[in-house]
């Protein structure tokens, strides 16, 4: 069955049992990737004790996966359009499984960094391929919206159960066991994927343009590195040079796409407001969300004194309600235009961020739970309908590239949120700690305690009882101020995204508006 026949508006075949079973298969790698992102941070102390990486090596262990995913997404999306999305998905699943086994049994920091890089490249094949295949499985608009909702729910469930699964795995097995979770999932995908998932590709696409691919990968990798390095070490020469090189290679990539008769990436997609505005709004949404979400978990562990597992349990109600609410989005989209549903959700998310301004060290955990519930529920219409608009606005033969653009926007938003907004919070925390504890702690202790809240907890464990109360008070007030600053910035960004959507997408019809 050709892509042209599938895209015909007159046919619009409804999905059957085979398509919904195919969707279940496509959700599995999505759930796994979200889960993997959480459990690795829990495993970091154990692998550090075993492999003894330097601080720089540990950062690369944690960061290299995200670098590779972000850098290769667009290239892998367009590659899937050319060689077949199912073929690329199965190749990526095989590579992801093998790299997971290698990572689980890594015996050095360098080997773990290398295998994590391979995991990132393989992971970049999975996300755009799954979304593109959903576009080719579900041709009725409201069915596609529901399918993307279920696919997005995989992220929520994976993120929610990550601390719980990680806690159980690390209680019974060694740190490498968290990587082996991927093996049975990828094996199942390889076994049933060829049977349930139809192949689809762009029949008129030529060969992949290697110079364009190299420019695209280089531009995104350099941009992500500049953001993360600038956040970690402040504005410096290396970050500045990386940003300049990213802008230069990005400009060359765009100019090359405009000259090519068969470009690797079709820039005309950005002429459609449903595509360009949705991509921009998702980036802003994730920017505001990630800048505050990181602070929430640090607040729960550093200020409220919870363990990682306890913090995960506190956030579980938010994840469960977010999952339940997300299933209402397809139904609501039949009655409300996307602009109103999305912007209304973003206003709710802004309210959640605003509620964080009332949180203090003495606040009930219920306030944090309520804020996270509003935030989590509020962003779901943006993530579901925004993704649907991006995929639906692209012709079937370009769905791989469109899906990759959507995923790249979220990756960039996440990196910028942690880097830009996170650095504001970190600067406020550092300055407040130095003001309140200068003369109370020696210079080394003050430097460690004012760097991160985790370092502060390590310093507290070594202090005599007479200093504990003053230091604890300084930590609580300083980090609370940082949390409030990040939340306030998030409110402004979230309201800006809501206004952008309300103004620019008001003419776009809902999935049920036929």
Summarize the structure.
By secondary structure, the chain is mainly alpha-helical.
Write a structural description.
The chain has 514 residues and is mainly alpha-helical. Helix content is 80%, strand content 0%.
Largest beta-sheet details: none
- Give the % helix: over 70%
CATH superfamily of the largest domain: MFS general substrate transporter like domains
The strand count comes to 0
The fraction of residues assigned to DSSP E strands is under 5%
- Any idea what the shape is? globular
Number of domains: 3
Give the N-terminus to C-terminus distance in angstroms: 26 Å
Structural class determined from secondary elements? mainly alpha
Q: What would CATH call the class of the largest domain?
A: Mainly Alpha
Output the CATH topology of the largest domain. Growth Hormone, Chain: A
Looking at how many chains there are and whether they match, the oligomeric state comes to single chain
Radius of gyration from CA coordinates:
23 Å
How do the SSEs run, as a string of H and E? HHHHHHHHHHHHHHHHHHHH
The stretches of 5 or more residues where confidence is low (pLDDT under 50) are 1-11
Any idea what the CATH architecture of the largest domain is? Answer: Up-down Bundle
Average pLDDT: 80
Compute the number of helices.
20
């Amino acid at each position: 069955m050709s892509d042209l026949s599938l895209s015909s508006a007159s046919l619009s075949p409804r999905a059957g049992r085979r398509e919904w079973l195919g969707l279940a298969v496509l959700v599995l790698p999505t759930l796994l990737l979200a889960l993997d992102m959480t459990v690795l941070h829990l495993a970091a102390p154990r692998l550090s004790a075993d492999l003894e990486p330097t601080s720089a090596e540990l950062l690369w262990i944690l960061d290299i996966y995200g670098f590779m995913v972000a850098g290769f997404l667009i290239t892998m999306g367009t590659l899937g359009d050319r060689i077949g999305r199912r073929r690329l998905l199965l190749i990526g699943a095989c590579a992801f499984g093998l790299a997971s086994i290698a990572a689980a049994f890594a015996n050095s920091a360098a080997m773990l960094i290398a295998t994590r890089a391979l995991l990132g490249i393989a992971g970049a094949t999975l996300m755009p391929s799954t979304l593109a295949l959903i576009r080719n499985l579900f041709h009725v608009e409201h069915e596609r919206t529901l399918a993307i909702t279920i696919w997005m729910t995989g992220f929520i469930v994976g993120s929610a159960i990550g601390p719980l699964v990680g806690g159980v795995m690390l209680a019974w097995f060694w740190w490498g066991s968290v990587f082996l979770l991927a093996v049975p999932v990828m094996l199942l995908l390889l076994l049933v994927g060829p049977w349930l998932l139809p192949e689809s590709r762009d029949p008129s696409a030529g060969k992949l343009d290697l110079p364009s691919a190299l420019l695209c990968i280089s531009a995104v990798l350099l941009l992500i590195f500049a953001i993360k390095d600038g956040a970690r070490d402040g504005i410096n020469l290396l970050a500045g040079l990386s940003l300049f090189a990213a802008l230069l290679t990005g400009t060359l990539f765009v100019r090359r796409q405009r000259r090519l008769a068969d470009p690797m990436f079709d820039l005309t997609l950005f002429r459609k407001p449903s595509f360009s505005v949705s991509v921009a709004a998702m980036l802003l949404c994730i920017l505001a969300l990630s800048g505050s979400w990181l602070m929430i978990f640090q607040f729960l562990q550093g200020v409220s004194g919870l363990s990682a597992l306890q913090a995960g349990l506190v956030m579980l109600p938010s994840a469960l309600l977010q999952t339940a609410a997300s299933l209402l989005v397809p139904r609501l989209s039949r009655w409300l235009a996307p602009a109103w549903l999305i912007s209304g959700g973003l206003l709710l998310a802004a309210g959640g961020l605003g509620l964080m301004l009332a949180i203090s060290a003495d606040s009930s955990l219920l306030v944090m739970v309520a804020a996270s519930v509003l935030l989590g529920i509020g962003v779901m219409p943006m993530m579901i309908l925004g993704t649907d608009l991006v995929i639906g606005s692209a012709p079937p033969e370009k769905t791989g590239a469109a899906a990759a653009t959507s995923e790249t926007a979220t990756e960039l938003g996440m990196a910028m949120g942690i880097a830009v907004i996170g650095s504001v919070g970190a600067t406020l925390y550092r300055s407040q700690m130095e003001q309140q504890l200068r003369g109370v702690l020696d210079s080394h202790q003050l430097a460690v305690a004012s760097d991160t809240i985790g370092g502060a907890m390590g310093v507290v464990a070594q202090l005599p009882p007479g200093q504990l109360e003053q230091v604890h008070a300084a930590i609580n007030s300083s980090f609370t101020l940082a949390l409030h600053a990040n939340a306030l910035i998030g409110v402004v960004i979230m309201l800006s995204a809501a206004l952008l959507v309300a103004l620019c997408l008001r003419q776009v019809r809902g999935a049920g508006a036929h």
